[in-house]
Amino acid sequence: MSQSSASDWEAGTVLHIFTPTDDIACAGVTQAGNPCGWRLEGGDKADARELLAEMSEKSPNAALDDLPELARLVLCRKNHQNQAGRVISRWKRAINTYISEADRATEDVTEVSNSSETYNDIIADLSRLRITPAQLRTIVDEHISERRQEPVSNGSARSTPPRSTPSFPRPEPSAEPSRSKMSKLKFFK
Description:
By secondary structure, this protein is mostly helical. The protein is 55% helix and 0% strand. The protein has two domains: 3-110, no CATH class; 130-188, no CATH class.
């Protein structure tokens, strides 16, 4: 996982530890399947907040080692300490989901970055060939027009219906590319 996504990680938020009032409640569930709702107090609350802050400074993977201690602190001692295994499993799934989403977001940013570099490379290549984007559009249009008229393997003319192409400004007649420039664009053949 990338460093930038790890630095955005906030353990208490990802693990859903805090209540809407920024308090910490027991992470266990009642026999009826409802959240316990018991609010942590005193030392356990302070220790849990400190541990969550320390976990947030680590990578999400490194923070996995702290989950048993966190469970001990945020499960009420009276009724729910026996749920530690289930709570830790739930937290591990939450962390793994966070890691997957962060990695996916990083891949998306990388993909956009790579496509921008490709576009910039194309523009630079056109500049080196002294071909403007409008001239390239003319070359492409001519090529498409020629391809529509090519015979297919059975000897009849290709009957490709005209496609709608975006309208680009056409260059002045004096700005037509030379044949030598067109021959450099072999990828259209």
